[in-house]
Amino acid sequence: MIDWSKPLFLVIGTAITALCATAAVADNPIVPGQYADPEIRIFDHRFWIFPTYSASETTPDQPVVLSEQQREMRENPDIWSPFLKQTFMDAFSSPDLVNWTRHPRVLEVANISWAAYALWAPSAIQANDRYYLFFGANDIKDNEQLGGIGVAVSDDPEGPYRDALGKPLIGEIHNGAQPIDQMVFRDDDGQFYLYYGGWQHSNVARLSDDLLSLEPFDNGEFFKEITPSKDYVEGSFMVKRKGIYYLMWSEGEWTGPDYSVAYATSHSPVGPFENKGKILQQDNKIARGAGHHSVVNIPDTDDWYIVYHRRPLHSDDGNHRVLAIDRMIFNEDGTIKPVIMTDEGISPVTLP
Ligand code: FUB
To answer: Fewest CB within 10 A of the end CB: N or C in the chain?
Structure first.
């Protein structure tokens, strides 16, 4: 509040200080527009967020070039119309977690012959001198339908990413898990894993060194179910801290208010995992439907940030999801404190 009883130079000084303080935080939501399922990474001393484009019924149609096969795939009356608009992905990059630049259409169905809609939940990684973007497409409901989890590659983090296989990497339902919500994780020994799964089942698979195929586990199987809780729904995310593997996921219905995030821990990347409970959920003063998150650790520190989507209080449109970032803090015993959602966001972070 400005105190006009003070001398003018003091009033102006106070106003400038307040303005600077406002500009120096992330300000949730961190970017304009409807986006969901954000995955945050650090590439070449810059933060990157890869989200789903969360079009809703009222979003104008975007120009999209489709093949005849893709048009046929869209001719199913059961497809929820917003999903037909989710045909591309934007990315965002930042030097400090506060100032974000949009990189439009890093991946589009025009570059994926077998994908036609519901392009969801990207997961990116830098390896083998290039960038890989894992994505879900077509929201498949059975093994007859074409779609599932694919992988695209690019020489640059901002794309353009092009389908690497010409077909899904995982195109069927295994252990009851819908092939969506993939997350690629590199362990300290260099082994890549893919965590994924909707419909209340979570699987882990081993990836080959070129990240373009799956390798069997020692027992010969390609998919290991690791569902950590009866409340698991989707959105698996893996992070390792001090030798402990933290499997995180979303619970609740993503179109509703009680979407949330929980986690479990293990000494192995493939479990078994001990459920530790929820860390992020709706706050009636800030936002509802908070979930499908990712986390980032600032190198050489124990500072952690959680990036997630949430629904503004005034909206009950399932696809009205916006991106937010807040602190994620570990207790001394390695458990995670409940995340406090804010409107203010965080202060800028300098990367080493
Ligand atoms: O954004 C589409 C779907 O909504 C994701 O796959 C789920 O995790 C949920 O966030």
So the answer is: N
User: Choosing from 158, 234, 251, 326, which is the catalytic residue?
Assistant: 234
Give the whole-angstrom CA distance, residue 294 versus residue 280: 12
| 85-136: pLDDT as tens digits | 999 999 999 999 999 999 999 999 999 999 999 999 999 999 999 999 999 9
- CA 196, CA 129: separation in Å to the nearest integer? 25
- Mean pLDDT, the chain, integer: 94
- Residue 36 CA: nearest ligand 1 atom is 1
The residue nearest atom 8 of ligand 1, judged by CA position, is 235
For the CA of 52, the closest atom of ligand 1 is: 1
Residue 55 CA to ligand 1 centre (angstroms) = 12
When pLDDT is averaged across residues 330-352 and rounded to a whole number, the result is: 97
pTM: 0.93
Q: Which residue ranges form the domains of the chain, and what is each CATH number?
A: 9-328 (2.115.10.20)
Distance 121 CA to ligand 1 centre (A): 7
Name the closest-CA residue to atom 2, ligand 1: 120
Pocket-testing residue among 85, 120, 232, 322, ligand 1, by greatest number of atoms within 8 A of Cβ:
120
